[in-house]
Amino acid sequence: MFQANNVPIDIFLDSQLKRFIEAKEMTKMKQFNKAVLIGALSALTLATGLVQAQDIKIGLVAALTGQAAQSGEAITRGLTIAIDEINAKGGVLGKKLVLVKRDDESSPPKGVTAARELISNEKVTALFGGIDTPVSLAIVPIANQNKTPFIGAWAAGTNITKNGATPNYVFRVSAQDDLVDIALINYAMNTYKAKKPGLVLINNPWGESNERGLKAAAAAAKIDLAGIEKIELTDVDITPQLGRLKAAGADTLILVANPAPGAQMMKSRASMGWMVPVVSHWGISGGRFDELVGPTAGDVHFVQTYSFFSAPTPVSTKVMAALGKLYGVKSPADVMAPVGTANAYDAMQLLALAIEKAKSTDGDAVRQALEQVESYDGLIKKYKNPFGTPAHEALSPEDYVMVRYDGGKITPVK
């Protein structure tokens, strides 16, 4: 229970109201003491603030500026639309949900600082995470140590959820690298008849996660890899890496990178005149990839967990209407970084169901309730016990779709 000066809030309010009434009576007797009335009003204002402080705070740590800012904006939109819907229906446990955002600038140290501040100072009930696997991996131990549910809405690193913690406070409504890697290898084989794909991977923990997954997927498919090349965030010429893959006989490129380094790879490919097919993880869709690449951006086919071009449902119709009202979105082609919007929207709805189920905002109670959520008819799919397994993964390869850039818009591959 909230208290004021160690007094329960209901008793505190009654006492201050009594003082206020007594002050008014003094006015009638022309003995009004302005100081008493001002003090009473100040106390009532304080009490009102305490009541408002009972709002349930939800934290977001994501890239809100920089190359991947579109991803942070998309996640923000998905969470905002879901929170508005929930609050319009009376909130959760009779309280309003409030989103509190922090910019990690795609930097693990800044993500750690933001997560600690949201947990310790803002007292958030749960945290949502953004695009970068290295940032999410840095936040995972903080979430587990502080018993604060951490829900990934984009970053796909396998070890984010498979982190070895018991109990595990990390959940995900997004793709998982191991599963995406299988999908990418299969797509390259089925669509481009690939027999010897080459890997181009960002040189960070996310790239390492996919290196393991792609090697395993290629071995399971009984095909050889032409080679594995690493790229850096600051690379401006990736011709040497591509040259080695071309010489090794790569018949397809599988790309795992965020927008800027991914765009540099495509520019180097074009400068070589090597029109080899490119299949990519979804990191390229978190920023201005198509603008940076230019005409060949549409050559890349990449994975998503949802397309707003899918057949309309009551939920998608509602979300599109909200996107139009709040952000001026007129068609599915206008949805910015759609995977962030879709994942975040469903994840927030699932969290709200868990808080209601727990009848509490206590972190451990919410964690247990998330594991027990039975069903939810969401935007991406109809969920059945989405977090019931130790992996805490709500989505599966059956939820993946392949898309491409078409005139600056992300559209399904036909």
From TrEMBL:
A Pfam family the protein falls into: Peripla_BP_6
Keywords, sorted A to Z: Amino-acid transport, Signal, Transport
GO BP terms: amino acid transport
Gene3D superfamilies: 3.40.50.2300
InterPro entries, sorted: BCAA_transport, Leu-bd, Leu_Ile_Val-bd, Peripla_BP_I
Domain Leucine-binding protein, residue spans: 56-384
Lyase is among the record's keywords: no
Family label: Belongs to the leucine-binding protein family.
Protein name: Amino acid/amide ABC transporter substrate-binding protein (HAAT family)
Provenance organism: Jezberella montanilacus
